[in-house]
Amino acid sequence: EDEKACVVHFHYTENPFVDENYIQMAEDRKKFDYDTYARLTLGKWGLVGDIIYQNWDIKESSRGFEYYTGGSDFGFNNPSCFLLVGWLDNEAYVIDEVYERNLINYQFIGKVNEMLKRNNLNPSNLDTVYGDKAEPDRIQEFNEYGYNMVGGIKDVNAKINATKSVKLHISPKCVNTIKEIENYCYQRDKDGNAIDKPIKYNDHSMDALGYCVYGTVGILSPERSMPEKATIYGY
User: Fold this and answer.
1) Higher pLDDT pick, 189 / 45
2) Per-residue pLDDT for 12 more than 80?
3) If you write DSSP's letter for every residue of 40-71 in order, what string do you get?
């Protein structure tokens, strides 16, 4: 051991800026996945359930996109999330995100409009947006603002399988999506084996991504009729 080195250990209970919602989510986590709770919440070494997505990198397109879609997960105490996704050569690029708590729907739509504007887009430039179909009123309000939003599939494993089937690229500015995908894990059973069920924790971007990718390329998604030489849209 290096006598000049020391380990300084902190965790969330010693952070005066952590809000009550985070504390509650952190404490709830240990009920269903203590290993991950110990690592991510208490800052201890330990096992982590199998990471779900390995098919991604941090990268932006330098060639524009053939078309755009979007995915949205609604929340209030939990974050509302909207992902702008561009498609090129059958690969998905997460271009930008809105990820914020305590937004009522018209505020959320306003944030999404601002995000599109900084990417030189408007709602009509998106082919289809896929949202949580458990919130039909919120989907309808998006449509009233010019979005073509429909309810996304709720089957979690179907969303995961579709998302695993494409190459994902995530812009470095999508910090919340990167944070979630890095920690999106399968649960473990009592014997410590990963099971085919993701940990339901900080998965708002992952839900939005799953809605979008399945809606675009999933086995039951609407067929796309793209011309042989699709127009490449830049920013």
Assistant:
1) 189
2) no
3) IIS------PPBS--SEEE---SS-BSEEEEE
The full length of the chain comes to 235
User: Model pTM?
Assistant: 0.77
> At which residue do the structure tokens 């991504």 appear?
209
Short-list 140, 73, 134, CA closest to 106: 140
Give the whole-angstrom CA distance, residue 146 versus residue 109. 10
Q: At what angle do helices 204-217 and 175-182 cross, to 10 degrees?
A: 90
97 has pLDDT over 70:
yes
What is d(CA 37, CA 200) in angstroms, rounded to the nearest whole number?
A: 12
| pLDDT at residue 109 greater than cutoff 90 | yes
Q: How many CB atoms lie within 10 A of CB 186?
A: 18
DSSP 126: E
Structure tokens at 173: 């500015």
CA gyration radius, the chain: 19
* Alpha-carbon gap, residue 68 to 112, rounded angstroms: 14
